[in-house]
Amino acid sequence: MANDDRQQTVDGFKESVNMTRKELEDWLGTGESKSVGQGEGESKGHESGRRIVTLLEKNKSDYTDDDLDHMKKVNSYVKRHLGQGPKNNVEDSKWRYSLMNWGHDPLK
C-alpha cells in the first residue's frame, strides 16, 4: 500500500474509532455488546471490536497490511451505519450498540 493510502486509512481509523482502548475493552465485556450483530456464536462486530483493541495497542510503524485492511473495514462500517441511525431512543438502541462494537460511540 502506498504511503499516502496508508496514512489516509490510519487517519480515517482514528476518526472512526472514537472510543479508547479501555472503553472498548470494557464495552465488549457487557451483555449489551454481545446482544447485537450477525454471525454464528460471536458476532462479526464483537470480533472486530477485539481486533480494534489490539490495533489501538500497536504503534503505527507496526501495522501490517492485514491491520490496514481491517482498518478500512472499520472505516467503511462506521461511515455506512452512521447514516442509518434511529430518530429517537439512540442511547439504548441496537444501532448504537453495534457501532460501539466497532469502536464508535455516536453519543460522544
Taking the sheet with the most strands, its summary is: none
- Which residue ranges are poorly predicted, with pLDDT under 50 across at least 5 consecutive positions? none
Distance between the termini: 31 Å
What coarse outline follows from CA principal-axis ratios?
globular
- Taking Cα atoms only, what radius of gyration do you get, to the nearest Å? 14 Å
- Could you spell the SSE succession in H and E letters? HHHHHH
Task: Tell me what portion of residues adopts beta-strand conformation.
Answer: under 5%
Count of alpha and pi helical runs: 6
User: What structural category characterises the helix and strand content?
Assistant: mainly alpha
Number of domains: 1
* Number of DSSP-assigned strands: 0
Mean pLDDT: 94
Give helix % range: 55-70%
Plain-language structure description:
This protein is mainly α. The chain contains 6 helices and no strands. It has helices at residues 3-16, 21-28, 31-34, 44-57, 65-82, 94-101. The longest helix is centred in the last third of the chain and has 18 residues, at 65-82.
